[in-house]
């Protein structure tokens, strides 16, 4: 699996000094075209991430800026969000070869405070020592990514989402 190093110090400076990137995506900011929107409803949005740790990494977040996974969402809002996570993860698995689907909520008050769930499909054949926390560690590395590849994968995932379950 080809990987490229990330400039974590630069990413941290940019995130710490800029507006909420998820709120920018929700608002339709043209500078966020790499984060192809895959699905959305009145409350939530799912999109490809700009620097994926794994091919097919998707973030699913509430459209409204919330910062605490449990205390900021009522049960029905949480379950609606998790329903979208489930549907998108199923669609990703039909498009991206997946040995294991990682689902997790990351971020902190210092960086990426807007709550979101990360869907990260582990490809088959990755040695155990390179799986789990290692492969998802911020600043570790990412898969090479282009706008064209993002559009292509987004189209495939959208088509999988549109198929009857």
Output the keywords.
5 helices; alpha+beta; 5-stranded antiparallel beta sheet; 5 strands; 165 residues
Give the topology, please.
Layout: H1 8-17, H2 21-26, E1 37-40, E2 44-48, E3 58-62, H3 75-95, E4 100-105, E5 117-122, H4 133-136, H5 147-162
Antiparallel strand pairs: 1-2, 2-3, 3-5, 4-5
Helix pairs in contact: 3-5
Structure, explained:
This protein is 35% helix and 16% strand. Helix 3 (75-95) packs across helix 5. Strand 1 (37-40) and strand 2 form a beta hairpin. It has helices at residues 8-17, 21-26, 75-95, 133-136, 147-162; strands at 37-40, 44-48, 58-62, 100-105, 117-122. The protein has a 5-stranded antiparallel β-sheet. The radius of gyration is 15 Å and the shape is globular. It is of the alpha+beta class. The N and C termini lie far apart (31 Å). It has 5 helices and 5 strands.
Number of helices: 5
Average pLDDT over all residues: 87
Low-confidence stretches: none
Number of strands: 5
Q: Report the order of strands and helices.
A: HHEEEHEEHH
How would a textbook summarize the main sheet? 5 strands, antiparallel
How are the strands ordered across the major sheet? 1-2-3-5-4
- Which bin fits the share of residues in helices? 25-40%
Q: What form results from the Cα inertia axes?
A: globular
Rounded to the nearest angstrom, the radius of gyration is: 15 Å
- Structural class, please? alpha+beta
- Strand fraction band? 15-25%
- How far apart are the first and last residues' alpha carbons, in Å? 31 Å
